[in-house]
């Protein structure tokens, strides 16, 4: 892993690192980073960068929040399409942001928002979680014939969907802060608070293929047999974990990191950020990194 470019954001309006728990999307010119201004949904800031890290433009979108989760998605879109620039709505507990357009549809196959308005800067598929869906309370995931359930930080159970038979139980450290993702013969997920690790567990019997002490994982990405996430330490550290043997490569970055650091891989580049300060009343002053994998 090598740093391609970095860019420091000096934003006097945002004093907390949690303000920047946003996301990266691909644009024709390079990449865009979007985040909430002042920890509210009143404004969404969009920074457009070239592939070489030059800031091309900064745009602030007005955002509409749809709290009516029980309304059919077609009605949600109809209600929000008159809002300028872009809007936010919820589907199945997930929050989505979309540019404003009269020609927006939903593609269930891609689990994505698709727009055919070619005038939009953020065109093509545009679907990201504005807020990471933390799973503090009891929750369950269906993977193949398995139903994996958990309750807060008290542990996990895996039962057979077809027979109802208990396959395994496991105690883990921290609350579930990510989705549970199947990879190979196992499942990957991250926990935070009360500790926090990245877990890779064999789906058939609950055996830990590996458990990595990250001190909190809310974001990770998988590409070409490797998992990428942050390790919270005195100095910001990015981990590259070999999923076949658990070996780790570390890349130290400037500043500090925490669970508010998004991680996104676009093509062969990983995008993330670190902070000068972490939720201590001082301006976070994040630095965006583009890292060649």
Describe the fold and architecture.
The protein is an all-beta fold and 293 residues long. The protein is built from 1 helix and 26 strands. It is elongated. The termini are close together.
Pick out its properties.
293 residues; mainly beta; Lipocalin; 5-stranded antiparallel beta sheet; 4-stranded antiparallel beta sheet; elongated
Quickly describe the structure.
This protein is an all-beta fold.
Our count of helices gives: 1
What coarse outline follows from CA principal-axis ratios?
A: elongated
Radius of gyration, in angstroms, nearest whole number: 20 Å
Succession of helices and strands: EEEEEHEEEEEEEEEEEEEEEEEEEEE
CATH C-level name of the largest domain: Mainly Beta
Q: What's the arrangement of secondary structure elements?
A:
Blueprint: E1 2-8, E2 23-27, E3 30-36, E4 43-50, E5 55-62, H1 73-80, E6 86-91, E7 94-99, E8 104-107, E9 112-115, E10 124-125, E11 139-143, E12 146-150, E13 156-160, E14 166-170, E15 175-176, E16 181-183, E17 186-192, E18 197-202, E19 208-213, E20 220-223, E21 226-231, E22 237-242, E23 248-252, E24 263-266, E25 269-274, E26 287-292
Antiparallel strand pairs: 1-26, 2-3, 3-4, 4-5, 6-7, 8-9, 9-10, 11-12, 12-13, 13-14, 15-17, 16-17, 17-18, 18-19, 20-21, 21-22, 22-23, 24-25, 25-26
């Amino acid at each position: 892993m090598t740093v391609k470019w970095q860019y420091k954001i000096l934003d006097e309006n945002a004093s907390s690192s949690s303000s920047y728990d946003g996301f990266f999307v691909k644009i024709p010119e390079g990449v865009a980073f979007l985040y909430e201004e002042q920890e509210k949904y009143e404004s969404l800031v969009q920074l457009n960068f070239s592939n070489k890290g030059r800031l091309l433009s900064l745009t602030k979108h007005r955002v509409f929040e749809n709290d009516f989760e029980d309304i059919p998605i077609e009605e949600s879109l109809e209600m929000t399409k008159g809002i300028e620039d872009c809007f936010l709505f919820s589907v199945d507990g997930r929050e989505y942001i979309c540019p404003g357009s009269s020609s927006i549809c939903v593609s269930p196959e891609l689990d994505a928002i698709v727009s055919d308005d070619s005038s939009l800067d953020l065109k093509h598929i545009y679907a990201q979680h504005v807020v990471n869906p933390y799973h503090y309370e009891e929750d369950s995931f269906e993977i193949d014939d398995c139903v994996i359930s958990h309750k807060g930080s008290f542990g996990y159970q895996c039962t057979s969907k077809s027979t109802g038979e208990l396959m395994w139980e496991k105690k883990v450290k921290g609350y579930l802060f990510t989705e549970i993702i199947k990879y190979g013969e196992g499942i990957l997920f991250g926990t935070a608070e009360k500790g926090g690790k990245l877990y890779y567990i064999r789906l058939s019997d609950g055996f830990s293929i590996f458990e990595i002490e990250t001190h909190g994982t809310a974001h990770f990405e998988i590409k070409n047999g490797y998992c990428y996430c942050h390790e919270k330490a005195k100095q910001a550290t990015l981990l590259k974990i070999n999923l076949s043997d658990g070996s780790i490569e570390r890349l130290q970055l400037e500043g500090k990191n925490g669970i508010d650091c998004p991680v996104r891989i676009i093509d062969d580049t990983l995008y993330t950020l670190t902070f000068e300060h972490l939720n201590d009343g001082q301006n976070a002053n994040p630095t965006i990194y583009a890292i060649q994998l």
